[in-house]
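Forum > Structural Biology > Help requests

Title: Can anyone predict the 3D structure of Glutamine--fructose-6-phosphate aminotransferase [isomerizing]?

Hi all, first post here. I have the sequence for Glutamine--fructose-6-phosphate aminotransferase [isomerizing] but no way to get a structure on my laptop. I'd be grateful if someone could post the structure tokens.
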Amino acid sequence: MCGLFGMVRSPFADDPGRASDVFVTLGMLAEERGTDSAGLALLGAWPGLGGWPGLGGPPGGCRVVKGRGPFSRIWRPAYVPELDRSPVALGHTRWATQGSPLEPRNASPMAVQDVVATHNGDIDAAGLRARFALPPSSGTTDSEPIFQLLAGCAGPPDVTRVLEAVVGRVALAWVHRDRPTEVHLARGALSPLTVAVDTDQNIYWASNPRWFRDAERHTRVEFASVVMLREGTYAKIGMESRPGRRDRPEVLVTANFLPTARDTDMDPRVWTGFTADDQEVDQAGLLHRAVQRAGGTGGLATVA
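Reply #1:
Sure, ran it for you. Structure tokens for Glutamine--fructose-6-phosphate aminotransferase [isomerizing] below:
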């Protein structure tokens, strides 16, 4: 059960440090969902680039930092200036179910073709490869085949077609590097995903809704809304391009799809770290279909 977290920064916030503090806090909290490896990706601005694309600096730029162990081991205060200037940041903590945790190429965030992406779950990767003609992977995880497919998607119909083909537990966050201020989020079967908006209009996501309540207590941020996504939800978050205007991040596109899980995928560890109330609410809204299918581990063993 990996941990996903990240943010899309609002250009209206008078202090970028507030959102950055939340991002780092979410990373520390996400350690409860995996300490095999951890990583972060800063998109849209890093040394040599200025601020927001179209607002004083050129678009582009991507820095990925990852390593073995918990998030607290790979995080460095030296990253703060870059984080404060990045419109988008993705984070991941890993509990390995497929692919050795000792292999750096298996750690996330992963840069695959033109996408930078993170995945929480465990899927039937062999079944996905059998259905689609995919190039060889650089690593041995079940995440990389999904990222390869998403990299070739031209729009929401293509995305939902890929997501409906996935069998297993899956929650995803990804960014196309040529569009670094647009984030794609998807929750398929089981793997939880929560979206929050603070009073500065920054948008965040995380695997556990409790983390936002904890972050509110330990940072200077107040959240205006915290919503657990239902299974079968895809959303694109970003800003409309309007000449002469600075727009806040918002949900630009939503779509629904029917997720599929294996009969072995229902495991209480899906809700690792959840309060009893949050788990009950989420389980009451499950709507995936279940099939008897070999493939993956069912999340019942960690690859050593």
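The domain at 3-291 is CATH 3.60.20.10 (Glutamine Phosphoribosylpyrophosphate, subunit 1, domain 1). The chain is about 20% helix and 30% strand.
Shout if anything looks off.
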